[in-house]
Specification:
The structure is a single chain. The chain is mostly beta strands and 403 residues long. The chain contains three helices and 22 strands. The strands form four sheets. Strands 1, 2, 3, 4, 6, 8 and 12 form a seven-stranded mixed beta sheet that branches. Strands 13-11-15-20-17-18 form a six-stranded mixed beta sheet, with no helix packed on it. A five-stranded mixed beta sheet has the order 14-22-21-16-19, with no helix packed on it. It binds copper (II) ion (CU). Copper (II) ion (CU) binds next to loops.
């Protein structure tokens, strides 16, 4: 059974209970919310995790290259041998899903400074679904790529490298950049090349970045997107958990039930008929053991973006109400008490809510047909039930999808 079937089946079996998702889901590293710890270097690339900040004129913040993928992942060399015939389809055996993206912790109070990031593009073959492999093109080996996080007024020095073993050129267009192509003009990189740009984070908000090498939607449909958070000068209000989730649509040639490595399907992409619509790169990336976790009473913030390339998201969490939404990722006045928020391709939002009652809350694109294509995530909330918030008076006891 594919993971899409497992996830959908679990939902049909019932959202109530929270113990339903143990079967059929791919195990993978735990997700988000724990940003790397900081260490400081002076203007040099380091291999330790992220930075401590000093005031103006102090050392620049340096964020190191991301770790290499796990041993089970392979580079795209093998993928390039597969053109179309399904009878020669390469096995997906031994492959794993991609890991989860790096999440940056909230920034300390500080004055604007120089922040250095280094990101490397990698082409990686990994599992999209149970037994179904795809050659992703990535920023830093994850989909989405690493979260970048700066403060309004910071000067950001971004070095983009394209790994020497890449097959094609890559680049970066950051929607937080004011400048030619959002940086894409200067960062068109052949395999093995690198480029460095500097930009001022003029506007606060949460912004998508993506590869902008032709054919751009092909690169995005291979996983090349992420979020850059530009905090307002006062920062974002503290919460108990921050999560980083991005939706993307993927186009694989051949039958989705056919195991093995699938190539990119150009016609499906131009027709806007995705084989998969998923959160964080693959089916099951945020379900089962990989579910997001919180406790009753805790405040949750989700940075939610849509890489696309084509599909807009009607982002909703089943069983929850967003206390606050930053529409279109903008800072400033929020909308309160929102059920579903529309997030365009190449757009993002911030949603916040308090987990008031225990249970499993399901992240979806409320164009719910896409659940069958993998667009399902879970937030497991543990803690005491409050009968004033929710109480079952009578039920025949049938599990139901709740929606
Ligand atoms: Cu690219």
């Amino acid at each position: 059974m594919s993971n899409v079937a497992a996830v959908t089946g679990a939902l049909v079996a019932g959202i109530v209970g929270g113990s339903l998702f143990a079967v059929g889901l791919v195990a993978r590293p735990q997700i988000v919310g724990q940003g790397p710890t900081a260490s400081q270097q002076s203007g040099q690339t380091v291999t330790a995790p992220a930075p401590v900040v000093t005031g103006p004129g102090g050392p620049a913040i340096v964020v190191p290259p991301l770790p290499k993928p796990g041993a089970a992942l392979t580079t795209s060399g093998a993928a390039a041998q597969v053109e179309t015939p399904s009878k020669t389809r390469q096995s997906a055996e031994g492959l794993a899903p991609l890991g989860q993206p790096r999440v940056e912790a909230p920034l300390p109070q500080r004055e604007p400074t120089l922040v250095k990031y280094e990101v490397e593009t990698h082409e990686v073959t990994a599992l999209m679904d149970d037994g179904i492999a795809y050659t992703y093109w990535t920023f830093g080996n994850t989909v989405p790529g690493p979260m970048l996080r700066v403060r309004q007024g910071d000067t950001v020095e971004l070095t983009l490298k394209n790994a020497a073993d890449s097959k094609v050129s890559h680049s970066i267009d950051l929607h937080a950049v004011t400048g030619p192509g959002g940086g894409a003009k200067a960062t068109q990189l052949a395999p093995g090349e690198s480029a460095t740009i500097r930009f001022k984070a003029l506007n606060p908000g949460v912004y998508v970045y993506h590869c902008a090498t032709p054919l751009v939607p092909h690169h995005i449909a291979s996983g090349m997107y992420g979020l850059i958070v530009v905090e307002p000068p006062e920062g974002l209000p503290p919460v108990d958990h921050e999560f980083y989730v991005m939706q993307g649509d993927f186009y694989l040639e051949g039958d989705r039930e056919e195991k093995g490595l699938h190539d990119f399907a150009m016609q499906q992409m131009t027709d806007e008929h995705p084989s998969y619509v998923v959160f964080n790169g693959s089916v099951g990336a945020l379900t089962g053991d990989n579910a997001l976790k919180a406790k009753v009473g805790e405040k949750v913030r989700i940075f939610f973006g849509v890489g696309g390339p084509n599909i807009t998201s009607s982002f909703h969490v089943i069983g929850e109400i967003f206390d606050e939404v930053h529409p279109e990722g903008a800072t400033g006045p929020t909308q309160r008490n929102v059920q579903t928020t529309m997030v365009p391709a190449g757009g993002a939002t911030i949603v916040e809510f308090t987990a008031d009652y225990p249970g499993t809350y399901v992240l979806v694109d409320h164009s719910l047909g896409r659940m069958t294509k993998g667009a399902v995530g879970m937030l497991n909330v543990e803690g005491p039930a409050n009968a004033e918030v929710f109480e079952v008076i009578h039920t025949p006891g049938h599990d139901a999808p709740g929606h």
